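Lab notebook, bench 4. Continuing the backlog of folding jobs that were queued last week. Each job is logged with the same field layout so the records can be merged later without manual cleanup. Today's entry covers Putative endopeptidase, a 671-residue chain. Filled in by technician R.K.

JOB TYPE: sequence-to-structure
TARGET: Putative endopeptidase
LENGTH: 671
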Amino acid sequence: MKVLRLAPLAALLFAAGLAIAAPLSAGLDKSGFDPASRAQDDLFRAANGRWVDTTEIPADKADYGTFIQLRDKSDKEVRAIVEELAAKKQKAGSVEQKISAFYGSYIDTATIDKAGLKPVKSALARIDAIKSPKDLATWMGSVQGAANPPINLWVMADFKDPTTNRALTWQGGLGMPDRDYYLKDDERFAKARAAYEGYLATLARLTGDKHPEATAKQVFALEKRIAEVHWDKVENRNPVKIYNPMTPDELAKAAPGLDWPTFLRAGSLAGIDRLSVSQPSATIAIAKILGETPLAELKPYLKLRTLDEAADVLPKSFRDAHFAFHGKALTGTTEDKPRWQKGTAEVNGALGEAVGQVYVARHFPPAYKARMQELVANLMKAYGQSIDGLTWMSPTTKLQAKDKLSKYMTKIGYPDTWRDYSKLTVKEGDAFGNRERSGQFEWQRIAAKAGKPVDRGEWGMTPQTVNAYYNPSLNEIVFPAAILQPPFFDMTADDAANYGAIGAVIGHEISHGFDDQGSQFDGDGKLQNWWTDEDRKAFEALGAKLVAQYETYEPIPGHKLNGMLTLGENIADLSGLQIAYKAYKLSLGGKDAPVIDGYTGDQRFFLGWSQAWREKVREERSLQLLTIDPHSPPKFRANGAAVNHDGFHAAFGTKPGDGMFKADAERIRIW
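JOB STATUS: finished
OUTPUT FIELD FOLLOWS
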């Protein structure tokens, strides 16, 4: 990949140093603790109760807590970078000018309002021009990266040949978060459906449709047909089921409702020898729906999907309607996010690594990376020791597990090579066009990888992203710079809270290589079984116990957790916490941890873990997350993992009758 050279931008970079003179702190925010709650009864409440009781979710937030606060901080830091660039005249075509123009055009709502529907007219005209199945396939291929058509394309490492990139298909085309919103008989889902039909009618009305309600009903009915054939979230978590390689000819014969050669050619994937069809039955059924639905009925659907995707860069009436549905109805927020903050998200999506280069220089000192490398090394060592000590795994499988662990690649902070944005066109005052072009630019970058060797240096997140991930095909764990700060990672804090927070995050991501999904990939990232049959059965039995535990949790009345959907994340939470604790013990080198602020090292470890999951969620957003999110709600992440941890029970001396007590024989121990 070409290294991005930034001359004027480099003037914004500076090296940051760090000096620590004061004694190490406990790394805990005791102001958020609830003195009336005991960790023995409710660890989450003990560490976060006062904060939960006294904190109001901001009007523009669907949920609020540790992650959101850090994301707000990152957004403010990105805003400062962008506005500093915008304050100076930049060379035309330079990456500095592109960052400035992209952000400036997005936040300039006066110009967006004045332009009216003019920017989107050409996109709608392309839909009007569809006269044949071939035209439909051309449209669907051409909007990859800029819209959400019924069938989406992607390129990533081949599950069976992880050194080579392959194209794949993925089901799409829905305007609501998931198939359940269309199909489940539930009062909350019914309310969302009514709001969605109203939103579709508004979009139709704003574009001059004389029968907007009828159009909305017709479009909703078509989307419901698509939703009925979609695979659910649990099915989509099974890598064996979603890996279905076919040649383009085989796919065209299996799903004749779509002109596949035209679709792939328009999607810049002409000439590929094969691709993976992720949801075969859904793909075949969607192609059939497209083939048998009259174009006169498809066009309104395509137009409303286009308007929905573009609403945020269209006039105020569209933006307001978009927020009324996607914000108020789906997440419960009462105010839209500030335009500047949505603008930082837009810039991060379009030019994220260019901004990230400055972000890293300003906010990620070299000492942070060195400390993180030390933490990761201890976590890896602890994981290896844990594998050695497993009683449910045979020596044969242990050897394979240790081999996989030895091949992990760790990425911390930022990529070694920055992405090149020289071919991306950004225009002043063209928010709609900039978004469309940036989406197409990114898709062309992705499509060009098909059939080529995998670039193991590539990152899937920008440095300013508050998150982390594990990629099974590359067998890598990735920690962007923005998550490596308090309360997850505090350079001024004692190791206990750091291991309980960022250590458990590191352990979590390592554990994804050994969860119900990741454990199906070997150390080279290849999808193949490296387990004995007996060991796999023992592992699945432990997973079944975890499913049963989490399905007792009921975050909102009538809606319990889906234990199978959240299984992988729950395994990673539990295993990550267990491994982080062992790594913390290793870091002590046989010495006793000091008592700080009245808490032992072990107690600080678990309080740091719980504090990391501090969050409040609106009910509407909770319903959405319960439907689509493979993670458990924060309270159950904090308590659900700790209740199975021997170290937690020892640290706080739990006894029968305590809310968090779990008998030794009933505790679930995996890695």
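OBSERVATION: The first strand starts at residue 63 and ends at 65.
SIGNED: R.K.
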